[in-house]
Design a protein that fits this description.
By secondary structure, the chain is an alpha/beta fold. It contains 11 helices and 9 strands.
Length: 345
């Protein structure tokens, strides 16, 4: 599999170092959270502490400490990968500012969503429409086709597209997710274990459920030569080497600061007749310049040089705890849109 590259741009390098520092800081940060939890517990009356301990609460906290340590072995291995592949030095890390621990926790949850049997519950809803659309479009010629997956995360959708036979580029803007993608493709089937539910004390049924481990990856990654991993903003992809027969987006377009620039870029990366396959919600971030309704999105797509040929609607969770007491579902919309010669605006 071709090695990705991370540019030497100062800001980009700093962001990489911050991600590596965050991976290394996972266990110390979790220990601080555990210490605070125990401190709050100590403020209870002696009687209430005895009652809580009688339920096994203190023992559960000890078991969670062990699970966090096990998670830390995974984050440390990913940090080592960054040191190896991108020449990250300890001296550089002294001046880094670790990314928030919540981002590292998200990475661990994405390993479950993308690369475990548990995650198939979500993937079985969101992946098939995209894969079926590509298979229907390219048929027997699929091995000759290039597909871009921007916002690839830790890469399972890109991997599945490559398994169809396409030459697939997994593009990702997050250093943590990008490093996670590289890491998981180097592992053998079910060789890694993570405890993804120990970070959340709400909505838990039992200590057993909170402490259950998840193995990943659930497949033996193969045919990796058909996948290339690129880091950075997909809107910077230019030139003939960045022309694709299809662009596949999953839980992606609502991450845009300006969704119109996303659509413009997708249009530019496709030849006339190329297709854009999308599935996802419209959950706008904290500071978008424009927040469209679905009706407005579909109208805009038609005005910006695409013809929508197929649509679908589904409901799906996202990095959910299937055994927890709380479940939230996204209404997700999907479409196949074909690039036409010219846009009307």
């Amino acid at each position: 599999m071709p090695r990705p590259s991370i540019a030497s741009d100062t800001n980009e390098r700093r962001a990489l170092l911050d991600a590596v520092a965050g991976l290394q800081n996972y266990v110390p940060e979790m220990k601080q959270i555990a210490a605070r939890r125990r401190l709050l517990f100590s403020h209870m009356s002696a009687r209430h502490q005895r009652l809580a301990k009688a339920t096994g609460y203190s023992r559960r906290l000890q078991d969670i400490d062990k699970a966090v340590t096990a998670n830390g072995e995974i984050t440390a291995r990913i940090a080592k990968l960054a040191e190896r592949d991108f020449n990250v030095t300890r001296a550089e890390l002294l001046h880094s500012r670790a990314v928030r621990n919540v981002r590292v926790i998200e990475l661990l949850k994405h390993f479950v969503r993308d690369w475990s049997e548990v995650g198939d519950r979500e993937r079985s809803i969101t992946f098939p429409p995209i894969l079926d659309a590509l298979q229907a479009e390219f048929g027997n010629d699929i091995a000759e086709k290039r597909v871009l997956v921007p916002g690839a995360g830790v890469g399972r959708l890109a991997y599945e597209i490559s398994q169809l036979g396409c030459r697939t580029e997994a593009n990702e803007y997050s250093h943590l997710m990008h490093l996670g993608n590289i890491f998981v493709l180097e592992q053998s089937k079910n060789s890694c274990s993570v405890y993804p539910y120990v970070h959340n004390f709400s909505h838990q049924i039992s200590g057993k459920e909170q402490l259950r481990p998840v193995l990943f990856p659930d497949v033996e990654p193969e045919n990796r030569i058909r996948i290339s991993n690129s880091f950075g903003d997909f809107m910077r992809l230019t030139g003939s080497q960045h022309m694709y027969d299809a662009v596949a987006t999953l839980f992606f377009i609502d991450t845009a600061e300006n969704m119109l620039t996303y659509i413009d870029t997708i249009h530019q990366l496709l030849p006339p007749g190329g297709i854009w396959v999308n599935t996802g919600p419209l959950k706008w971030g904290s500071s978008p310049r424009v927040e469209f309704t679905l009706e407005e999105v579909l109208n805009i797509i038609a005005k910006m040089g695409f013809k929508i040929e197929k649509r679908w609607s589904k409901k799906a969770e996202y990095t959910a705890d299937s055994e927890g007491l709380w479940h939230g579902f996204y209404g997700i919309e999907g479409w196949v849109a074909r690039k036409i010669e010219d846009s009307s605006v």
